């Protein structure tokens, strides 16, 4: 379908809840404007309560919001199969096997059986679970459950993957393995990803672009395009410099060089000022 706008565009998106007192409003998301390019890997990073999940849920269609969000020119008002969602707690159906969990979306979308089977097989192979297709979720490790959950999201052939702290419950080593595998899946499929995390190092390993959110009200304090190769060395010095910059934004310190707000244009001199 041809479309002229950005791949995804958020215009004046805000979320407000009523506070405990009459007339009191709680601005969870301050009006936010954002363009997402096709194939981009964006991490939403920030402290607890800054609105990361709320923003992701708006894009997923789970949350009502003010403003407009469009994906490939289509306005988002409810969940849709073109947006695959991966949750921290896997959300697998325990009474279905891995294969049945993955095949569920294609089945509900009315795909014929043969196409469904080949798609399910392809997605299981992509996440390395082809030998575990007949297992029930209770026989899988946390990492395997998250792989199954990822395969289930991919089986709907989405144009964007929305992930809410998918690896937060995993041990450090499994988490690093999953991060590398996710990048490999991303490389093979070219899919656009929006990934919520609390972890600066996770964001720096995965993202092409990091949006640092701050709370009260939830807002984007830094929109940082990373000038790093796709395959990253976790010990690369440049990661540490980005890390220092992000930490200073999270501490709400005034940025170096007297700039009121860091932007991509002025990041190079700012980064250079971090030893
Ligand atoms: N249904 C609701 N009613 C009122 N306030 C809500 C509701 N849902 C979320 N909030 C508030 O919105 C704010 C943002 O919550 P959100 O879960 O999006 O933050 P988060 O950055 O994802 O946090 P975490 O990292 O802890 O998951 C919080 O202050 C939360 O209390």
TrEMBL record:
Gene3D superfamilies: P-loop containing nucleotide triphosphate hydrolases. Coiled coil: none annotated. Residues 8-240 form the ABC transporter domain. InterPro entries: AAA+_ATPase, ABC_transporter-like_ATP-bd, ABC_transporter-like_CS, ABC_transporter_ATP-bind, P-loop_NTPase. GO terms for molecular function: ATP binding; ATP hydrolysis activity. Keywords: ATP-binding, Nucleotide-binding, Transport. SMART domains: AAA. This is ABC transporter domain-containing protein.
